[in-house]
Amino acid sequence: MEYDENWQERYKDMIQTPKMALTSVRSGHRVFLGTGCGEPTVLVEALVKSAANLADVEIIQLLTKGDAPYVDKKYAESFKVNSFFISHNVREVFQEGRGDYTPILMSDIPRLFDSGQLPLDVALIQVTPPDARGKMSL
């Protein structure tokens, strides 16, 4: 990949508020949440704040360690969880039959998305700030 000397200008144009970033999430969408400590908590909070305007959003997650406000029963019409791992903060959803568990080997998850078997509409991820060359890390 060629180095882009103007990456800083392009980067400035990409910066948005969480509310603006989530305008691409629509009812019926499938949304992947970043995993573990890489979960974008600010975006999750903004997503939950927009629950009244959303219906049947499927949240795909591997492992979430933070709060999972979208599992609250009051958001049942807005969000449904489909998880590859049942962690303590989402367990009640599965015990009550309000979510789906997809058993899968971690090494098979990329293929699940790449093959189109589980297509995603939006991915909410968190990355580091860009370094001097504009590179970021998950």
Shape, please?
Answer: globular
When the domains are counted, the total is 1
What fraction of residues sit in β-strands?
5-15%
Q: Helix segment count?
A: 5
How many angstroms separate the termini?
18 Å
Q: How many strand elements? A: 5
Radius of gyration: 16 Å
Mean pLDDT: 93
CATH superfamily: Glutaconate Coenzyme A-transferase
CATH level-1 class: Alpha Beta
Strand/helix succession: HHEHEEHEHE
Helix content: 10-25%
Major sheet = 5 strands, parallel
Instruction: Supply the CATH architecture.
Output: 3-Layer(aba) Sandwich
What name does CATH use for the topology? Glutaconate Coenzyme A-transferase
Q: Main sheet: which strands, in order across?
A: 4-3-2-1-5
Low-confidence stretches: none
Looking at this protein, list some descriptive labels:
138 residues; alpha/beta; Glutaconate Coenzyme A-transferase; 5 helices; 5 strands; globular
Question: Which secondary structure elements does this structure contain, and how are they paired or packed?
Answer:
Elements: H1 7-14, H2 18-21, E1 30-33, H3 41-49, E2 57-61, E3 79-83, H4 91-95, E4 100-101, H5 109-114, E5 122-124
Parallel strand pairs: 1-2, 1-5, 2-3, 3-4
